[in-house]
Write a structure and sequence with these properties.
Number of helices: 8
Radius of gyration: 19 Å
Largest sheet: none
Helix content: 55-70%
Distance between the termini: 61 Å
Strand content: under 5%
Order of helices and strands: HHHHHHHH
Mean pLDDT: 86
Structural class: mainly alpha
Low-confidence stretches: none
Oligomer: single chain
Length: about 190
């Protein structure tokens, strides 16, 4: 536990926003710093820390990370379900339960005209999820994981560009429509 005090004290505070200001730390530096202070089990959990958790749920060894994975997986399943309904496709979440707040966030984002605005809304939802789960003990290993998720999200948000995003959106959307047309011609 004392190692975590040294670790957390070296992590600079930052705000998560869409502006172009540089973050005070990179994820690579954060990871390197963690590797000096966390044990092997905690590093294995950190290795699995992702903004895109696997579809199949698993126990990471951290209740914080498991909760994050559940919330993010719920959001992604809710988004997939809404997209499938719009395209009149079948979709099954399997045995996975979907968090009600994730369904609400997915519906709200899906109703937005701008893909960029929808993504910004979803990123704010993700940030709120991370903040709501942040441990009371700011020096706990879960606080270190929370910091890592916030850093990953902030890094991702800073990469957004409206023009590039719209071009990518149209490319992906066109490929989906093309694949759907080919499937219907069979």
């Amino acid at each position: 536990m004392s190692n975590q005090y040294y670790l957390v004290s070296q992590l600079p505070e930052f705000t998560v926003s869409d502006d172009r200001s540089a973050l005070p730390i990179t994820y690579e530096y954060y990871y390197d710093l963690c590797s000096r202070f966390l044990d092997k089990k905690e590093m294995k959990i950190l290795d699995g820390l992702s903004l895109e958790p696997p579809l199949e749920s698993y126990r990471s060894g951290s209740s914080f990370v498991d909760s994050w994975n559940y919330k993010e997986r719920s959001l992604r399943l809710a988004l997939a379900q809404i997209r499938a309904l719009r395209m009149k496709k079948k979709f099954s979440a399997g045995n996975e339960s979907i968090a009600p707040d994730a369904v609400l966030a997915a519906r709200t984002a899906s109703g937005m005209e701008s893909p960029l605005a929808a993504e910004q809304y979803l990123n704010q939802y993700r940030l709120n999820v991370i903040e709501s789960m942040r441990p009371m003990d700011g020096f706990s290993v879960d606080a270190v994981f929370s910091y890592g998720l916030r850093l990953k999200l902030a890094t991702r948000m800073k990469k957004f560009n409206a023009a590039t995003g719209m071009a990518s959106y149209h490319k992906i959307y066109d490929s989906i429509l093309k694949a759907d047309a080919q499937e219907n011609n069979k």
